[in-house]
Write a structure and sequence with these properties.
The protein has 297 residues and is mostly helical. The chain has helices at residues 2-22, 29-37, 53-58, 62-67, 73-81, 86-113, 121-169, 174-184, 188-203, 207-218, 221-235, 241-296. It has two domains: 2-22 and 42-146, no CATH class; 152-253. Helix content is 80%, strand content 0%. The protein starts with a helix and ends with a helix.
Length: 297
């Protein structure tokens, strides 16, 4: 039964791939016209990296997953933040799904050879569960990594605002304050800020425009608000020192509240092992007595 199930799954996958190849998905006419009339998008500020063995194993299936419309728009944004290419992500999804599909089948075959065959629904259910889990696991990992980087960027952005405020108070201009403040910090967050400012300098665009683009790519509204505030200072000559100080204080208070909430949640989770140990101890103590009572009835 395991062999028939695997053969049926392979035949279904092959028929689906053949149908996608014969009848490819057709985009709407409005989207095609918008692509023709749209201005060329600026080059992305965030860069991506390649993977390892999973990419080599799952790369033959990336075309099929691309034809199915994967990855989605939200996953693409998370991949850009995590500095991973969509091809690498799709290859890992295919490799993990394939490994999850074949591992229970291999275990079932080994047990059958050893004379301890399992009922056919057990390996079949294991194959389907592990395949689905392996297919979804890269999405969950990328989403968690993107959220972690967004949180770290918000924390670094508060320090960046403080540095800009200090430099503006010392008499520096807006452009010079942005560049000098980004050159002081270290880490991934300040590296992205320096890359955005360098892109503005090389393309002869305003630095707040590239910072706004970076905020859109990272999905960080605070950075987009900073770009809008700095554009007022650069174009209208507005005084932004007080606004930057207030925004920095608000971000610090928000970060402190989030850290306190996470600490309280971690404290509550720490109580669960103690409760489980107490429950197990109670069962261990009272189980012999309950057994004696039930046997005597």
């Amino acid at each position: 039964m395991i062999e028939f199930a695997l053969l049926g799954a392979g035949a279904g996958l092959g028929l689906w791939a053949l149908a996608v190849w014969l009848v490819p998905p057709r985009p709407a006419l409005a989207s095609l016209i918008s692509r023709l009339n749209a201005a060329p998008a600026p080059p992305p500020i965030l860069t991506t990296d390649t993977g390892g063995w999973a990419v080599r194993l799952g790369s033959p299936f990336t075309g099929l997953l691309r034809a199915a419309g994967l990855p989605g728009h939200t996953v693409n944004r998370d991949l850009a933040i995590a500095e991973r290419s969509p091809e690498t992500h799709l290859a890992e999804k295919a490799a993990l799904a394939l490994a999850g599909l074949l591992l229970p089948a291999a275990v079932g075959v080994l047990l059958s050879v050893g004379g301890r065959a399992l009922p056919w629904p057990v390996p079949l259910g294991g194959c389907l569960a592990l395949a689905v889990g392996g297919f979804v696991l890269p999405d969950v990992t990328v989403r968690a990594e993107a959220e972690r980087r967004r949180e770290a960027f918000r924390h670094a952005l508060g320090a960046y605002l403080n540095l800009i405020h200090v430099l503006l108070a010392g008499g520096a201009g807006v452009d010079g304050a942005l560049t000098d403040a980004a050159g002081i910090g270290q880490g991934w967050c300040f590296q992205q800020l320096r890359r955005a400012l360098n892109a503005a300098r090389l393309t002869r665009t305003s630095p707040w425009a590239t910072l706004g683009q970076l905020g859109d790519e990272l999905q960080i509204s605070e950075l987009a608000e900073l770009a809008a505030t700095l554009s007022l200072a650069g174009t209208e000559g507005a005084k932004v020192r007080a606004s930057l100080a207030a925004k920095s204080a608000a971000m610090r208070s928000r970060s402190g509240a989030e850290a306190e909430g996470k600490a309280n949640a971690a404290t509550e989770r720490m109580a669960m092992p103690g409760i489980l140990m107490a429950f197990g101890f109670i069962i261990f103590v009272f189980y012999p007595a309950l057994t004696q009572i039930t046997n005597s009835l």
